[in-house]
């Protein structure tokens, strides 16, 4: 399938609730290398869950350019440690593990970080996250770009088990 | 749950087409002819102004007014508006809202729009009380119920598919939960498409063509009527019960006399086509005004109101309790200035309108409709950012 990169750049601008730090990308001329566009970002609330020390961030990443780009790392002041995770089958069981090499955003395509799929794991949370909070999140990509986001915290219950793996002893 | 590549680029392509297209005609296809790429009916959620106001009337609409929770301060309200803004964009483009628990219910190409409004309390929180929407006094004919009146925030979702409206509203209500709680909700419907697929004015439950006298979108008259200097407007929501039982007891000519227009076409009683100008001077053989002194179309006409106009865009409603049905009009009026434009009209109609005999206003609320927003921005950023 051949895709029109320029169209996508115009169609999917960043709509994150930035607090002025995140630069809204300008529509990209064909010759430039466009940045990844980030949409629909959110973090799952931890208040009322079994383990309030970790959660995950989800979003849609769009790469309007014609070279693959990778999300290589993420950081947030609310978390002691942030990792890029994937869900994988191990010994017949779905487990969550660190994603080696980061999350690829193929040229002229998307990557979706979603519950049950790849996600950004926020660990060692300094305090529980309530629905209605906002969390700063910084993403680093293989094209040497950095994106500072302000991501809303939302209540969510579906597939909660994936983010709260039952202790192996059980 | 992960959309396929094809679907994703479908979304992107649809969003790129942007503009609203009305009246999607049905095309008969030959088996051998490949289906033409569908025309996008998504309405661009971004812009200098919130887009629903100038878009064609949606088939289905739902309004939810919210009261802010006691703990919601200015900063919290800004957080709510940032996350609502992201929902507005995602849902308007046919994508699930972030964190959507029923993502399959988000559908593209249903002309879904969301309008966000601010009640007087929002301006108090922002420290700009005097900039808030002017509140309306209770009129002589009003029988207002608290359950249909007031509100600190408004969400108005419209689309040509009711499931999409209901789904979007559910997301806005869920995302508001930490900040605000619903005060009232009303839903209604409008048919602005004729049998030939072309746009028409549409009818209310009295059977009247309703909306003819509106200033036309895109004219200087429209802009002067609707837009305030900051690119926003105001919205008056009046829930008006129509007494269809007593209305049905009238003859057609009595019904037409009450409004001053024909039921068949909406034409003035002095004309033949819907958009003919009213001749307010014309008299019949007995010397009586053809358009009665208390006819609604006369009393509300701009020429009788020092040129004052409003832009009406209502929704019909029915409300069932057991086997009893209440019918009415969710009267929605946009104007730059409530006190200067809407209130004098309302006062005049309350005093003398022939329609008062069959209509009762049971709910009333006023909202400021802030300007639209661009990528990277959010609704209300100027007031609360
Ligand atoms: C009680 C329910 C109401 C019904 C059923 C109703 C119905 C109608 C109808 C059928 C028309 C003529 C066609 C048209 O121009 O759209 C009309 C015109 C109009 N109505 Fe109403 N209306 C109602 C309430 C109101 C209220 C509360 C206001 C404002 C306070 C209002 C203001 C107007 C205006 C400004 C016009 C246009 C006059 C012009 O030709 O310039 N109406 N209405």
From TrEMBL, chain B:
Q: Name one GO molecular function term.
A: heme binding
Which positions fall inside the Dyp-type peroxidase N-terminal domain? 50-189
Keywords recorded for this protein, A-Z: Heme, Iron, Metal-binding, Oxidoreductase, Peroxidase, Signal
Cofactor(s) required for function per UniProt: heme b
Any idea where the Dyp-type peroxidase C-terminal domain is? 202-372
Record's Gene Ontology CC terms?
Answer: cytosol
According to its UniProt record, which protein family does this protein belong to? Belongs to the DyP-type peroxidase family.
Q: What is this protein called?
A: Dyp-type peroxidase
Query: What organism is recorded for this protein?
Result: Kribbella antibiotica
Q: Which classification does the entry list for the species?
A: Bacteria, Bacillati, Actinomycetota, Actinomycetes, Propionibacteriales
């Amino acid at each position: 399938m051949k895709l029109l990169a320029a169209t996508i750049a115009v169609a999917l601008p960043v709509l994150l609730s930035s607090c002025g730090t995140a630069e809204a990308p300008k529509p990209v001329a064909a010759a430039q290398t466009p940045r990844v566009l980030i949409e629909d970002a959110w973090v799952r609330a931890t208040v009322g869950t079994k383990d309030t020390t970790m959660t995950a961030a989800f979003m849609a990443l769009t790469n309007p350019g014609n070279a693959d780009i990778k999300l290589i790392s993420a950081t947030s002041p609310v978390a002691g440690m942030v990792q890029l995770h994937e869900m994988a089958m191990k010994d017949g069981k779905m487990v969550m593990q660190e994603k080696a090499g980061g999350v690829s955003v193929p040229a002229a395509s998307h990557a979706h970080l979603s519950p049950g799929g790849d996600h950004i794991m926020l660990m060692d949370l300094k305090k529980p996250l309530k629905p209605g909070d906002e969390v700063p999140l910084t993403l680093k990509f293989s094209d040497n770009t950095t994106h500072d986001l302000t991501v809303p915290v939302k209540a969510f219950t579906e597939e909660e088990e994936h983010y709260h793996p039952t202790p192996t002893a059980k | 749950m992960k959309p396929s590549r094809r679907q994703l680029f479908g979304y992107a392509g649809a969003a790129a087409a942007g503009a609203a297209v009305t009246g999607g005609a049905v095309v008969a296809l030959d088996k051998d002819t490949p289906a033409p790429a569908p025309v996008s009916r998504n309405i661009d959620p971004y812009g200098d102004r919130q887009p629903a106001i100038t878009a064609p009337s949606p088939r289905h609409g739902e309004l939810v007014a919210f009261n802010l929770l006691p703990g919601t301060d200015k900063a919290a309200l800004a957080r709510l508006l940032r996350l609502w803004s992201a929902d507005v964009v995602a849902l308007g483009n046919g994508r699930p809202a972030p964190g959507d628990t029923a993502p399959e219910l988000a559908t593209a190409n249903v002309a879904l729009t969301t309008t966000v409004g601010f009640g007087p309390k929002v301006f108090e929180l922002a420290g700009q009380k005097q900039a808030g929407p002017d509140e309306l006094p209770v009129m002589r004919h009003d029988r207002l119920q608290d359950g249909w009146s007031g509100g600190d925030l408004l969400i108005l979702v419209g689309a040509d598919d009711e499931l999409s409206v209901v789904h979007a509203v559910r997301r806005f209500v869920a995302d508001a939960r930490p900040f605000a709680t619903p005060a009232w909700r009303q839903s209604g419907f409008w048919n602005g498409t004729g049998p030939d697929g072309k746009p028409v004015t549409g009818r209310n439950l009295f059977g009247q063509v309703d909306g003819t006298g509106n200033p036309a979108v895109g004219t200087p008259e429209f802009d002067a009527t609707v837009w305030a200097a900051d690119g926003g407007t105001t919205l008056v929501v009046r829930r008006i019960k129509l007494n269809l039982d007593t209305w049905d007891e009238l003859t057609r000519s009595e019904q037409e006399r009450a409004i001053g227009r024909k039921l068949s076409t909406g034409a003035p009683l002095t004309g033949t086509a819907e958009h003919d100008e009213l001749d307010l001077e014309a008299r019949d053989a007995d010397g009586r005004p053809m358009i009665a002194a208390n006819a609604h179309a006369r009393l509300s006409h701009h020429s009788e109101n020092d040129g004052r106009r409003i832009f009406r865009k209502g929704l019909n409603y029915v409300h069932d309790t057991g086997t009893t049905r209440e019918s009415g009009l969710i009267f929605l009026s946009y104007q730059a200035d409530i006190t200067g434009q809407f209130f004098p009209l309302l006062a005049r109609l309350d005093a003398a309108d022939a329609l008062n005999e069959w209509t009762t206003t049971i709910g009333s609320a006023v909202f400021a409709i802030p300007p639209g927003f661009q990528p990277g921005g959010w609704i209300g950023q100027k007031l609360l950012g």
